[in-house]
Amino acid sequence: MDKHLRSEMIRQAMDAKETSYSPYSKFRVGASVLTSDGTIYSGCNVENASYGLAICAERNAIFQAAFAGKRKIVAVAVSSDERGFLTPCGACRQVISEFADDKTEIILVNTAGKSKSVSFQSIFPTPPALNKLKK
Ligand SMILES: [Zn+2]
In terms of CATH architecture, what is 3-134? Predict the structure, then answer.
């Protein structure tokens, strides 16, 4: 991926983390999503007093992209306050798979802004058969 785009994705994921609404867990997460037309969407996690209604940063960002009519995800960046690298939860991996392809990249960003990339395929190797309907 283009170096400038990659650092812009990291910056937006880290900025999005600042708007996290996480009064219960105090676990802030920000994400950004690059779509095939080069647009970046971002989102933060949003919790609720009814815990199960919380939404992850990744899905928040992806749903914004979907609302804007985007259907292809090139990359997803995930930022947290951890010193290690937080990976998307199972629910988010399922949602990413809806819009991902074989080349989709996941950029993991730690609290210091250090990053590493993994292929989406490596963290979600066997998408449900239903996904084949959209291919
Ligand atoms: Zn998630």
Answer: 3-Layer(aba) Sandwich (3.40)
